Every structure is written in structure tokens, then in C-alpha cells.
Amino acid sequence: MTGAREQAEQLFGEFGRGRPDGVWSAPGRANLIGEHTDYNEGFVLPFAIEHRTYAAVGIRADRTLRVISTLDRQPFALSLDALAATFDGPAGHAVAEGTVPEWAAYPLGVAWAAYPLGVAWAALAATGRPAAEVAGLDIALASDVPVGAGLSSSAAIEGATASALNDLWELGLDGLSIAKIGRTAENEAVGAPTGIMDQVSSTLGRLDAATFLDCRTLETASVDLGFTATGLALLVIDTRVKHAHSTGGYRERRASCEKGAAEMGVPSLRDLSVADLPRAEEALDDVTFRRVRHIVTENQRVLDTVEALRAAGPLAIGELLVASHASMRDDFEISVAELDTAVDAALGAGALGARMTGGGFGGAAIALVEADSLDVVSRAVEEAFAERGFTAPHTFTVTPSEGARRDV
Length: 408
Ligand code: ADP
Ligand code: MG
Known about the structure:
Layout: H1 4-12, E1 22-33, E2 43-59, E3 64-69, E4 72-79, H2 83-87, H3 93-96, H4 102-125, E5 137-143, H5 153-168, H6 175-190, H7 197-204, E6 209-214, E7 220-224, H8 227-230, E8 232-238, H9 248-264, H10 277-283, H11 286-312, H12 318-332, H13 337-348, E9 353-357, E10 364-370, H14 374-387, E11 394-398, E12 405-406
Parallel strand pairs: 3-5
Antiparallel strand pairs: 1-2, 1-12, 2-5, 2-6, 3-4, 6-7, 8-10, 8-11, 9-10
EC number: 2.7.1.6
Enzyme class: transferase
Keywords: ATP-binding, Carbohydrate metabolism, Galactose metabolism, Kinase, Magnesium, Metal-binding, Nucleotide-binding, Transferase
């Protein structure tokens, strides 16, 4: 089977101009723990996975941007001079109005967010700084990150594109700044109101480590996972139930969190701790309280997980994963029957811990499993799905991997 990197290079051939100038890539991510805490200015602990999106990119002599993807083999072109007119304005309007296909709004939105930085550098060149050409580009994209499975193919496409622009437009950005460009593209150009966790994880990932991110200060710390040394593996169970991230449930949960914070008189739920929960229960209606309780306890679970990993290693975190799932199922109410089935079956077959991951309403669950019982756990999950008449899940392992990089 051809890998995604080769696919991107081959697809680049469809531009009819020979080889790309380089290939960049960025990974998807799995979130070990910390769900829906990002937009509440709380804590998350994601890790980059080995599944990546590759961008094969060639510099053009003119000011045209062309994008093509194995997801939609129709190339889409836009001038650098049309970026602002296309994407400035209300979030997501170019996609909503059909001016730009949704998939193309990810790489072109990245270009829109990065372009002013490139122009600023080019202007500085006149004052003696090294010249930074802001050239048009041909960008061919291919990915082995499952789309819409809660593994953030969106951060992967943003990270791969932004890393390419960072080098080719000589922007000199660090990983966090590249992540911010990705988030701006996703929030403003695509119109999906997500936090910055996925992008940070995709740009800053390290082998066998997770990225602990404080979503308020954007401080990060790499936390060793030690899965390999401990003989553990992380199983992903893609339920194949598609989530609809930018609609319905996600917006509602965000609104409940904002309401809870406002009624508790704090800037965000980050400012509440477990000790504040009895007071919150008295002050809030039942639903809002349970939403708040999920966020507050989940923040504490992330801190506890980091501490457990540092003090005792990954064998010590199973219970925290299980508690996180229960909180999402019962308090935040973002699980679905397929996710609950996956978690219960994995635990029943000996997984150390398991929980749904990602925004919810479908997507994937993760299970922390001893490497030599991977088959047993996978089979138990498949059987449980078959018994309930669910579409067969797709199970595979993910290895904590390196973040965005230049490959060629
Ligand atoms: P997730 O990030 O969980 O996979 P999202 O809905 O956030 O799901 O992002 C998926 C969307 O990102 C796709 O529907 C598509 O528009 C875009 N996308 C992701 N990967 C690619 C790709 N390789 N080529 C083109 N578009 C992609
Ligand atoms: Mg996404």
C-alpha cells in the first residue's frame, strides 16, 4: 500500500509541473484526558499519533494558491490578493456561501491567517532583514488520519499546511504560533468554533510523550507516557458514528459552560475547583450544574493524571480514564451507545482504562491495554458491537509520536 507521503507527492503530479519543493507533515491526535476543558480555559493532555497529513508543496512564480487533496481530487485555486476578500468577515461565511469548498478552507484559511505575517516580513526586508518572498504555492494533500473520527484530521491538515508556509514564506514561527494559525483558520475561515488543543498537540508532539497544555496561559509541558517501556498500548476504537462538531450539541455544551461560569460569577469554569461544587449545585439548575461538574472534575483529573504519570507511570492512570468517561456520559451527556459499548467491552476484557475521546456524539474511544491483550480486547469490542447490531467498529493502535515536521 502506498503511504500518505507518497500519495501527496503523486497527487502533486496532477498540477502538471514536476516535483514539489518539499513535503511537510503534521499528525492527528488522541486526547488521553481532558475533554471539553479547552474552551473553558482548563487543562488537556493530548498526544500526537503516527497518523499524519502530508502536504507536498511547490513554489509558483505568480501569486496563485492552488490546493488539491486525495479527499477531493478537484483542484481549487485562489489568488493571494483575494484571500482577504474571501475570508475576512463573519466566521465561516466563505464556506457557508459556497465560495470555497469546505475542505479547501482549511489550507487556504491557513494561508489567509499566515499571509499578513509573510507580508510584514517582506516589508521588513527593505530595512535590511533577510528577504521573505511571499510566493504563490501549489499544495497537494494526502492523509492517513481518519476524517471525523475524533482524531483531528483538521489539526493535521492545518499543521502540515502551516508548517510548509512557515518555511517557504520564511515566517520564523515556533510550534505554538503555528498552532495559533491553524486555530484561526479553523475558527474563522472554516467556521468551526474549536479550542487550540488539537493544533498544539499536532505541532508540539514528541515520541512516547503527551503534551500537557494549560489552555488559559498556553503554557505547555511534555509528559513522558512510558507506554513502550511498560508494555502498554493505546487502542483506538472508531465507532464510525460521525460527529457533527460545528453544530448542535457542541455549541449547546459551550453555551451551558458559559452560562454556568456567568451564574457562578467567574470568568471561566477554570476558576472553579472541586471545593466549589456544593455551592454550584445550590446556585445552578440541574443540567447546568452537571455540565459544570464535568468540567471542574475533568480539570482535576487531568492534573491527577499528569501527577500519576510522573510519579508512578501509565499503569496508575486507568481509573482516571474510566472516571472521565463516566463524567462525559452522565454529566456532560456527549456519549452515544456505541461509545459506551466500546468502553464497557474494553474494560470487561481487561483494559486498564477506557474513555471516549474527542468532542463526542460519535467518533472514537480509547483504551489503555497491555500490548499482549490487544487482540482479546479488540475482539471483545467487536463482539459487543455485533451483539447490539451496530456497524462494526474500526480498531487500531496509536503510538505517541512526533509533531509537525518537514519530511523532504
Ligand atoms: P476531525 O478533525 O475530527 O477529523 P473535523 O470535522 O474537525 O473532524 O475535520 C474534518 C474535515 O477537515 C474534513 O471534513 C475536511 O473538510 C477537512 N480535512 C481533513 N483532512 C483533510 C484532507 N486530507 N484533505 C482535505 N480536507 C481534509
Ligand atoms: Mg477537527
